[in-house]
Amino acid sequence: MVLGMKKRIFVAIKISPELQEAILEWEKNYNRLPVRWVGGKNLHATLVPPWEEEDAERVKKVLEALKNKVGRFEIEFNKVEYGPHGQEPRLIWAEGRPPKVLVDLKERLEQLLGHRSDFRPWLMHLTLARFQPRDFSRFPVKQLNEEVFWRQEVGSFVLMESRLLPGGSDYEVLGEVEL
User: Fold this and answer.
1) Confidence band (pLDDT; 50, 70, 90) for 166?
2) Coil, strand or helix: which one is 44?
């Protein structure tokens, strides 16, 4: 990469193909909503929010310090609702209570990278769909608070690049760190 060209990058947990299938099955019940569904390879749970970076290779090397340091763990999403809380809805997301090992990993990542989340307290969530708040008035379903049981074993985290395209964001994995 040529220095001077900034990329918008972030650290996340990729969603497994098995969980992607479960999400796709769930979405079929809401396919009439006027939303842009986040699909397949773009599904992720953000650990360190996006920032502009000139040297993504340096960041990958910094992240390697955590290789094989944490161990595998499970995450679980148990509720789907509109988000974010306390604002006009603009997302459909799944929430879950993060295990302590994930909270500790997030804090270590933020310290290593020098980037902290603007959201306090941090809410582990998985964005399923995006929409314009002005479109919410057209939704046939105004309340969404559906229980789900989506579980995934986590054995790595990824450095991703976010690219804004006319149809929405697209994400590319730049590097993966095994736990």
Assistant:
1) confident
2) strand
